[in-house]
Design goal:
Elements: H1 2-15, H2 18-25, E1 38-45, H3 50-58, H4 63-71, E2 74-79, H5 87-96, E3 106-109, E4 114-117, H6 121-134, E5 145-147, E6 160-161, H7 170-175, H8 178-187, H9 189-215, H10 220-251, E7 255-260, H11 262-270, H12 275-296, E8 302-308, E9 314-315, E10 317-318, H13 319-323, H14 327-334, E11 347-348, H15 353-360, H16 364-369, E12 385-388, E13 392-396, H17 405-414, E14 420-424, E15 434-438, E16 441-445, H18 449-453, H19 460-470, E17 479-482, E18 492-493, E19 499-500, E20 511-516, E21 528-529, H20 531-542, E22 559-566, H21 579-589, E23 593-601, H22 611-619, E24 622-631, E25 634-642, E26 646-653, E27 674-682, E28 685-693, H23 698-709, E29 723-728, H24 736-742, E30 746-747, H25 748-751, E31 771-775, E32 780-785, H26 790-795, E33 801-806
Parallel strand pairs: 1-7, 1-8, 2-21, 5-6, 5-7, 10-18, 11-12, 22-23, 28-29
Antiparallel strand pairs: 2-20, 3-4, 8-20, 9-19, 12-13, 13-17, 14-15, 14-17, 15-16, 22-33, 23-25, 24-25, 26-27, 27-28, 29-31, 30-31, 32-33
GO molecular function, one term: endonuclease activity
Organism: Microbulbifer halophilus
Keywords: Endonuclease, Hydrolase, Nuclease
Length: 817
């Protein structure tokens, strides 16, 4: 009854949803699928390193993310983005499973001999064309959408928003009739007012920051250029993307990707540790909260939300500011005696990343005001070129005329003062050895990798391997120049910026993944993710496989964790039928033994699925099921799942109402009730566990309790020693039924130290305590959990009840004695 009321309320709320209205008015297609189908929202916080996120959480700048970790069982994981640590490389690995799709953000395309940047639409399209040739199943294929991505990644035309090669559903908005546009504006008036207010605040802050920057010696033109870019990225793009993602959630798209850029933009300009960069995180945290609530309120799919970053940033010093000249000028001087060396290298990157972002949002007028020395107009004049955008620079097509590569690398380090230079001994042979030069002399990889990265690098082995592999990239330079290596106080960047990424530094290669508790890293011993592993896990989740539910059990040895859970035929209060969601609830808490009630097996109302078998398979547990109700092939009853050695002792029907009295007004009162008894072995001890689900009438429950306490069950000679009785008793703690049980067993919620008993029903407002774990006196209850997360409040009309119980010592005394 209560779940039907909740479902009806959700349907009415959906009718008044602004996102639903916008999708309908714009004529956007919706996904037709069963409401229990999985959906996934991938939220990327661009440029936020794991250490910076920890600092932001500690200082209260991201309260919603902290709430996810404390209340919703998310866990913070390390993520290694690879080298180059750039957005296009990470997105290519996430979307297509291809590592090192590009050697840097700006590089020379060997096929055209032109310097390019990944923000150029034709460049992004060309790279994606190559990726599609290598991968036939991009992550967003099959109905996904993306926001602020460099690649469409399989998303249909019109579903890639604010991306270089697609207009998103902007044409639908332009084609809409004036009255529809007016209605959209009216229904989103508060959002518009809110966004306008944020733009004004951000604009004022940007002006103040601009003045401060000029007083600190920054270039006035660059500071003015940064103001519209900052406002556009920090506020407008964030708000538009948030609104768009909520619309796509209302449409029920299977997978949605959004890239939130604000922090990365501020970090490039002021540094990743700056107050202005961290101030932006508050707005990003609020946007994530709105997306998360929309996802968990969806009626069309069961959405999960994963949050991660693509890379971090290093606090850097611009090379040009440090040495008073650009890298191109320094190289021209250092290599002036080599044949064919020009006075100035055609290059990319002197203007810095801020102008690239400005061009993305249509600020071409800024580009006309700021000449690009050695820019596009020179790119095709000579094959000799320098790509220098960030802490990784690449020198192409330098004519050596017999000069040793080691000598060139030495000149670059000693005269141009570049910290590290790497090269292949034979550029034509991708398998040739990688050598290099740094301040301490020649190096060879991978042998000298630990010395180059230092003892404190978070991912030394992976980083060294990627640095070696990057030298073989078809579009990599002949000489790879890094702005950081071990022993430097602060890395260098070859662009005019104070925060930088793209190289091999310890912060830029240290991203994060904030994941639900039941989705651990694929390799727990290694302890971190790679983008391609996020992709594989996402694909498994979207196919309904979710192998991560079968995660390793808890490390506790002596403590037994038991759970009782009425799963309501795996139908949540949102009306969605989802055994997978129930499995996720169970997996998050890693119980040793699970007592489940109200399971359907081959019933038409639940799609003919064997729910007991399905849950056991998802959780990698053994299962014993007892059908209290058996109608032809359809069955309905209770089960015990465990990963421990288990033996079925008994399963049977309990007595019904006295004198054959049935429920005149409640057909459920006529349901037969049963119990199932198993023996499990844990730490060499045998434990007797009984799971039951009692009837709805008091008289019936009293008869059933007497039966359970009698010689067929708890008083049976074989049911001696440590015993547990778990289940949904449909009775309150002060009832005669519970008092009768309490005369022989202990109520775990009452016995637990420093615990106030909590209700488990109804899950949205759990006031009634009708689910119980009773223990024999020789157990000691250590801890009780009644998790009231968004997932548990939706998955069933009951909350799970979990107890950590210390086993008897085996000497005949209670462990508490």
């Amino acid at each position: 009854m209560l779940d039907r009321i909740a479902s009806r309320l959700r349907r009415w709320r959906r009718r008044f949803s602004r996102s639903e209205w916008m999708a309908q008015l714009l004529g956007l297609p919706t996904s037709e699928c069963p409401p229990g189908d999985p959906g996934l929202v991938l939220i990327q916080i661009d440029g936020l390193a794991h250490p910076q996120l920890e600092q932001a959480l500690a200082k209260g700048r991201m309260p919603f993310l902290k709430r996810l970790m404390e209340k919703e069982h998310y866990h913070l994981e390390h993520l290694y983005p690879g080298v180059p640590s750039t957005t296009p490389a990470v997105q290519a690995e996430l979307f297509f499973g291809v590592r090192q799709a590009v050697p840097a953000f700006g590089f020379m395309m060997r096929e055209s001999q032109k310097l390019v940047r990944m923000y150029d639409p034709h460049v992004a399209a060309r790279v994606e064309e190559k990726l599609n040739a290598r991968c036939r199943d991009p992550l967003l294929a099959g109905g996904g959408s993306c926001y602020l991505s460099l690649f469409r990644a399989g998303a249909a035309r019109g579903e890639a928003h604010f991306c270089p090669a697609d207009q998103g559903w902007g044409p639908a908005l332009r084609d809409a009739s004036p009255w529809k546009v007016l209605l959209l504006l009216l229904t989103n008036a508060w959002s518009l007012v809110r966004t306008a207010g944020l733009v004004v605040v951000e604009f004022v802050l940007a002006i103040v920051d601009c003045v401060r920057g000029v007083f600190r010696g920054q270039d006035l033109v660059r500071e003015l250029m940064f103001i519209p870019t900052r406002v556009a990225v920090t506020i407008l793009m964030r708000e538009l993307c948030t609104i768009g993602v909520k619309i796509d959630i209302a449409r029920g798209l299977p997978v949605i990707y959004v890239n939130l850029l604000g922090y990365d933009e501020q970090s490039h300009r002021r540094g990743p540790r700056s107050a202005f960069a961290h101030w932006v995180l508050k707005g990003i945290d609020d946007a994530i909260a709105r997306i998360w609530r929309a996802a968990h309120g969806s009626d069309r799919r069961h959405y999960d939300v994963w949050i991660f970053s693509d890379h971090g940033q290093e606090q850097t010093r611009p090379y040009e500011r440090e040495f008073g000249r650009s890298l191109g000028e320094a190289l021209a001087d250092a290599l002036s005696d080599l044949p064919g060396s020009p006075e100035q290298y055609p290059s990319k990157g002197r203007r810095g990343i801020d102008l690239e972002r400005a061009r993305l949002f249509g600020s071409e007028w800024i580009e006309k005001m700021t000449p690009d020395e050695g820019g596009d107009e020179h790119a095709g004049d000579t094959p000799l070129a320098l790509a220098a955008l960030g802490p990784l620079a690449m020198l192409y097509n330098l004519e050596l005329d017999g000069t040793e590569r080691a000598q060139v690398a030495q000149l670059i380090v000693e005269q141009a003062r570049v910290p590290l230079v790497l090269y292949r001994t034979d550029p034509a042979d991708p398998a040739s050895a990688v050598h290099g030069w740094w301040a301490h002399g020649p190096v060879k990889l991978p042998q000298d990798g630990p010395a180059l990265l230092g003892a404190n690098h978070p991912f030394p082995d992976e980083t060294i391997a990627d640095m070696v592999q990057l030298c073989s990239h078809p579009d990599a330079g002949d000489f790879m120049m890094y702005g950081w290596c071990a022993g430097m106080d602060q890395p260098l960047t070859f662009a005019m910026e104070n925060g930088s990424h793209g190289g091999a530094g310890p912060n830029e290669t240290h991203a994060f993944a904030l994941m639900p508790e039941d989705i651990p890293p694929p390799n727990p011993e290694r302890g971190h993710w790679r983008p391609e592993e996020l992709r594989a896990t996402a694909r498994a989740y979207l196919r309904g496989l979710n192998p991560a539910t079968a995660r390793p059990r808890r490390a506790a040895v002596k403590t037994l964790r038991v759970m009782t859970y009425n799963v309501h035929s795996c139908r949540g209060i949102d009306g969605k039928l989802s055994p997978q969601r129930i499995a996720r609830v169970i997996a998050r808490y890693q119980p040793d033994v699970v007592a489940l009630q109200e399971l359907d097996v081959l019933r038409e109302r639940s799609g003919g699925l064997d729910q007991a078998e399905r849950l056991a398979r998802l959780l990698a547990m053994d299962v014993h099921f007892h059908p209290a109700l058996h109608l032809e092939e359809e069955r309905y009853g209770d089960a015990i799942l465990t990963h421990l050695p288990v033996r079925l002792i008994k399963k049977d029907i309990l007595p019904g109402p006295p004198n054959g009295k049935s429920g005149l007004f409640n057909p459920a009162a006529d349901e037969p009730r049963g119990a199932i008894w198993v023996e499990v072995e844990h730490e060499g001890q045998k434990l007797q566990i009984i799971n039951t689900h009692l009837g709805l009438s008091k008289a019936e429950r009293l008869r059933q309790v007497d039966a359970l306490l009698g010689p067929e069950w708890l008083a049976h000679p074989h049911c001696s020693g440590p015993r547990l009785l778990m289940g949904d008793l449909n009775a309150l703690p002060n009832s005669a039924e519970c008092k009768r049980l309490g005369g022989h067993l202990r109520d775990a919620q009452v016995a637990a130290p420093d615990h106030k008993p909590r209700g488990t029903f109804f899950s949205r407002m759990p006031q009634a305590r009708i689910d119980y774990i009773y223990t024999s006196p020789d157990f000691r209850v250590e801890r009780i959990l009644v998790p009231g997360t968004e997932l548990t409040r939706q998955a069933s009309d009951h909350l799970p009840l979990i107890a950590d119980i210390e086993l008897p010592t085996g000497d005949g005394d209670s462990p508490g004695d």
